[in-house]
From TrEMBL:
It comes from the Bacteria. Keywords: Signal. Gene3D superfamilies: Methyl-accepting chemotaxis protein. InterPro entries: xxxLxxG_rpt. Residues 1-25 form the signal peptide. This is YhgE/Pip domain-containing protein.
Length: 608
């Protein structure tokens, strides 16, 4: 055993003697190799920058550093630029040379990282965070441990002191982690609230070229806040153009529908204009008819007076002949003859008046009939009316159109029902005039017979015949007068009733005039609607193209944040965090660790 220990000790001592030589040789070789590599110029394919910035809880910038990453093509010396206050090698233990804004380092690795610390370098965005507790503005440092309704407002804007390349091409994602043991009833109107384990994560997004203001509110107990995290990255995702074929077809259908509505309203406008012209003609004819009826009614009194006079004269003559028969002398027969001729003349005048009245009535009735006939037949379908209501036309105008249209159709249908009564008036007037003509002729013949036969006739026989004739004539005329009186009473009632009908037609005329104006206005409106929707599919495509051009940043070429001299920049990202608002953690004493043994200590332990 002792012999074995002796051999091991001898070998170890020999190793110790040789070790310094080996170390010196390795150091020389390493130094020689390092010297060779330092002199060689390296190359890289891409450079990435990650900018880390810390803000205070109100959004004011406090510190910033950049982690630079190089993907090497050839090992050797690399030159980079940046106004760093200090730099630190994150890849190996070699020093990095810095002269002003020039940074030089040597890399043998495929990926090389170094950190550059920046002072007074502003971010491309101005970020402001404000707080309200129960409606009162509160400083961040005053929030810790408070209870109440918290409202946080985050505002982002372009920093005018920095170029617009990042503001125009980068989107911001703002995240607020919220502990559910502290916060409840979390609301973020313009953001998204998602579960993150047992806690909640509130996220807002700011698109490129946009300045935004966001609000998140919650009820807090013993308030603490984690850091607000803001990530800024280039919006380089390519946006695929949406398939708008179906939508464009629907828009085309809408455009065609509005054009059809415009055409239908144009036809409606023409129909309303035709209706208005017909109603005006109807009103003119109604006015003539009303004047004729009123004239007839006014003449009825005179007609009745004349008829009553004739009736009284016939009765008086009949009574005289009946009572005086043989006592009548030639002179009285002469008076009788004259009376008969006067009655016959009065009947002829009455007949002439009735014939003139008949002519006036015929003209008035013709005007009325033509006016009613000029109202168009019902031809507007219910679907067309509903289409009007569904258009952008004024509903009140459409209601007026429909009511006037229905009123005109009602007037036309009512006239069709009572037309027979109007038609019967003219034949009745003809019949009455014929009766008067017949009675006038009979009276004239009686007067002629009386005049020619006074000298030769048998007075008693003639008186008997005359008496009988006068009694028959007086009785017949009594029936005629009764019918005439009834007829004139109906004429008076017709004149009174028709006055109300005529006033209604006047209102109808005013309504159709307004209706025509409303239809013209409606047609102009549907014309504007049709014009505005005629190129709607193209306008929609134009809007989509503009929106895609606004948010599609796929042609963006990244630039360095720290220096425009830097080349081959592939990506620049920003990681921005506010300081948290939290209670100080109590530091726990760490157990004492045994002092780490050096090489000689571990070596001696082998022999213990």
């Amino acid at each position: 055993m002792r012999t074995r220990f002796t051999r091991v000790l001898a070998a170890f001592l020999a190793f110790l003697l040789v070790l310094p030589t080996v170390l010196v040789s390795a150091e020389k070789n390493g130094a020689s190799q390092e010297s060779d590599n330092t002199s060689a110029k390296g190359s890289y394919s891409t450079k990435n920058e990650v900018v880390y910035a810390t803000l205070n809880p109100a959004g004011d910038q406090k510190s910033m550093y950049v982690v630079n990453n190089f993907t090497m093509d050839e090992p050797g010396e690399i030159i980079d630029y940046g106004p760093y206050s200090s730099v630190e090698n994150l890849t190996n233990l070699k020093d990095i040379e810095q002269t002003d804004d020039r940074v030089a380092f040597t890399s043998e690795e495929e990926e090389f990282y170094y950190q550059g610390n920046l002072e007074d370098k502003p971010l491309p965005w101005d970020i402001n965070v404000s707080y309200q507790l129960d409606g009162e503005t509160v400083k961040p440092e005053e929030l810790l441990g408070q209870d109440g309704h918290l409202e946080i407002q985050i505002e982002t804007a372009q920093n005018e002191d920095v170029g617009d390349s990042f503001f125009n091409n980068y989107l911001l994602q703002i995240s607020l982690p919220m502990d559910t043991d502290i916060y409840e009833n979390i609301e973020a109107p313009d953001g998204m609230v998602a579960n993150a384990g047992k806690d909640r994560q509130v996220t807002f997004t700011v698109m490129p070229e946009k300045e935004e203001s966001f609000t998140v509110s919650a009820d807090a107990v013993d308030l603490e806040m984690e850091a607000i995290e803001i990530a800024a990255m280039p919006s380089v995702m390519s946006i695929d153009e949406p398939d708008t074929g179906e939508m464009k077809n629907e828009m085309t259908s809408l455009s065609d529908a509005t054009a059809d509505i415009h055409q239908g309203v144009g036809e409606l406008e023409s129909g309303v204009a035709e209706l208005n012209d017909g109603v005006k003609s109807l009103y003119d004819g109604s006015e003539q008819y009303r004047d004729g009826i009123i004239g007839l009614d006014n003449g009825s009194a005179e007609l009745l007076e004349g008829s009553e006079s004739i009736q009284a004269s016939l009765k008086q003559m009949s009574d005289s002949v009946s009572s005086g028969s043989s006592e009548m002398n030639t002179e009285e027969f002469q008076k009788l003859e004259d009376g008969l001729r006067q009655i016959a003349g009065g009947l002829e005048e009455t007949e002439t008046g009735l014939l003139e009245l008949k002519d006036q009535y015929a003209q008035a009735y013709q005007a009325l009939d033509e006016g009613i006939a000029s109202i168009p037949e019902a031809g507007i379908a219910e679907e067309d009316i509903q289409a009007l209501y569904q258009s952008d036309a004024d509903p009140e105008v459409i209601d007026q159109l429909v009511k006037t249209y229905e009123g005109a159709q009602t007037a036309k249908q009512t006239y069709a029902q009572v037309k027979e009564a109007f038609v019967a008036v003219e034949p009745t007037l003809d019949e009455v005039a014929g009766s008067l003509s017949e009675m006038s002729t009979n009276l004239t013949e009686m007067a002629d017979s009386l005049a020619s036969g006074l000298e030769n006739m048998d007075v008693d026989e003639s008186m008997t015949e005359l008496q009988e004739g006068l009694q028959t004539l007086s009785s017949s005329y009594g029936d005629f007068h009764a019918g005439l009186k009834e007829y004139t009473g109906g004429t008076a009632e017709l004149a009174t009733s028709y006055e109300e009908l005529h006033d209604g037609m006047a209102g109808l005329t005013d309504g159709t005039s307004e209706l025509e104006d409303g239809a013209a206005e409606l047609h102009d409106g549907t014309g504007e609607l049709a014009a505005s929707t005629s190129d709607l599919p193209d306008e929609m495509q134009k809007e989509i193209d503009e929106m895609m051009n606004e948010f599609d940043k796929s042609d963006f070429d990244p630039v360095s944040f720290v220096s425009e001299k830097n080349e081959k920049v592939d990506n620049v990202q920003f990681v921005i965090k506010t300081e948290s608002i939290k209670k100080d953690e109590v530091e726990q004493e760490e157990p004492e660790q045994e002092e780490e043994k050096g090489f000689w200590g571990r070596l001696l332990d082998l022999f213990r």
